[in-house]
């Protein structure tokens, strides 16, 4: 199962900066028909709107609120590709005073947000035989203490992504799980990571992975070291057919 970006209509959550913004720009450069910019604060998409005009449509969406997600799904009916990129990071080691609060906040956005958008947009994706792209992380596979709660939220979202892959498979919807390492974004700076690859590497990787029909994408050099170690397990367990 694979899908080309060309001529497609996409929606990107968290489209106003970082990886989300790079995805929007790469999709349009590679022939996407239109991209919905799904953000909590519509004013933050002005740069993209000025640059791309009617190729982009700003859509107010808060992934922490079911009613907001459902309203967005009702407002558009032409979706082919959904990129769930919105996420938050609240650095916390497992013994921090704020560790429970951090985990609650990150689960609300990073995990429950995925569930909300997948449920709301599933009918459109099924009708159009589209694709769901979920922004996970290498920390969904290996926890680092200073981002322990973020790692937990991404491990949970990766588990849900695996279930969505199998659920959507028989309905003709492709699912892609993206696992970047350090990328030059504001979120990476929050985690103390000043160096990293360009967000455009993730964006182009998504386009290529969708065209190839891949389930996993490890788009940067650090992530690819994880991929090399993980590939055998993935083939034997994660994407193996256990239905028999």
Automatic annotation (TrEMBL):
- Identify the species of origin: Microbulbifer okhotskensis
Source domain of life: Bacteria
What is the official name of this protein in its record? SDR family oxidoreductase
Recall the GO molecular function terms of this protein's record: oxidoreductase activity
**One Pfam family from the UniProt entry?**
adh_short
Say which family it is in.
Belongs to the short-chain dehydrogenases/reductases (SDR) family.
Q: Which UniProt keywords apply?
A: NADP, Oxidoreductase
Q: Does the keyword NADP apply?
A: yes
């Amino acid at each position: 199962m694979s899908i080309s970006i060309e001529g497609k209509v996409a929606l990107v959550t968290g489209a106003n900066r970082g990886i989300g913004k790079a995805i929007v720009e790469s999709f349009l450069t590679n022939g996407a028909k239109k991209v919905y910019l799904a953000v909590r604060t519509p004013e933050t998409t002005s740069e993209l709107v000025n640059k791309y005009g009617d190729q982009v449509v700003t859509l107010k969406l808060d992934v922490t609120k079911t009613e907001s997600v459902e309203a967005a799904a009702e407002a558009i009916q032409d979706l082919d590709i959904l990129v769930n990129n919105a996420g938050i990071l609240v650095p916390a080691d497992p013994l921090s005073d704020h560790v429970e609060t951090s985990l609650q906040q990150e689960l609300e956005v990073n995990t429950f947000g995925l569930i909300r958008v997948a449920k709301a947009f599933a009918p459109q994706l099924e009708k159009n035989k589209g694709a769901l792209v979920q922004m996970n992380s290498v920390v969904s596979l290996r926890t680092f203490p200073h981002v322990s709660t973020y790692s937990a939220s991404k491990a949970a979202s990766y588990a849900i992504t695996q279930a969505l892959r199998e659920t959507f498979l028989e309905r003709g919807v492709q699912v892609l799980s993206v696992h970047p390492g350090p990328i030059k974004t504001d979120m990476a700076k929050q985690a103390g990571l000043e160096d990293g690859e360009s967000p455009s590497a993730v964006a182009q990787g998504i386009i290529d992975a969708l065209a190839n029909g891949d389930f996993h994408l490890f788009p940067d050099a650090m992530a690819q070291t994880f991929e090399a170690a993980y590939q055998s397990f993935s083939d034997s367990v994660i994407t193996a057919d256990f239905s028999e």
